[in-house]
Amino acid sequence: MGQEQHEPRRPGGTAPGPGPGHPVWANAHRVTEFLYVGGSLRSGDADPATVLGELRGQHGVTHILDCRTETSDARLVAAIAPEVVYHQAGTEDEADGTAEGWFDSGVAFAREALKVPGSVLLAHCALGQTRGPSMAFAVLLDQGYDPGEALLMITQARPQAKAHYAEHALEWHLDRTGASEGERRAAFESLRAARGRTGGWHHRRH
What we know:
It contains 7 helices and 5 strands. The protein has a single domain (28-198), classed as Protein tyrosine phosphatase superfamily (Protein-Tyrosine Phosphatase, Chain A, Alpha-Beta Complex), CATH 3.90.190.10. It is an alpha/beta fold. The longest helix has 18 residues, at 181-198. The model is unreliable at 1-7, 10-15 and 201-206 (pLDDT under 50).
């Protein structure tokens, strides 16, 4: 592709690798050693203080990427876990498309965060089905993962994740990196194959 790719931050394969496993109280799942995906901080099985304490203390979450537009947890995070860096890059849920600049804002935040060794990012939305998983998918693409592998990693870690905007994310990524026609065909074929394995659907056909 035309733009230099990031070296994948992974031990290899699609499994998350050794680590703490999935959170107990938080509505979130561990995709890799540096990426979690989930729903609202208020939708777990405990109060937000317990949820944030678990994510920070037991799972090492250092950055939160909130993909909602309808509300913000900036004050909540600042009050309970001020050491966690919070960024909101929102888009409407279940819309025909994503907000202009949505992937640019979210992925740029994630890229800067993950430059620091030991950083752990949580990408979340309200239910953890569409927006958060789609942004997590875009982050994995930016980190050098294959599209099909990235989608399967997310859906295997979090079965309720649909990532309906994954096709939008892949198109954004390929445009940004100056992919050739052959690279584009291969990338979308990889994603289609993964969709077939998960039984998912998507907004746009390529």
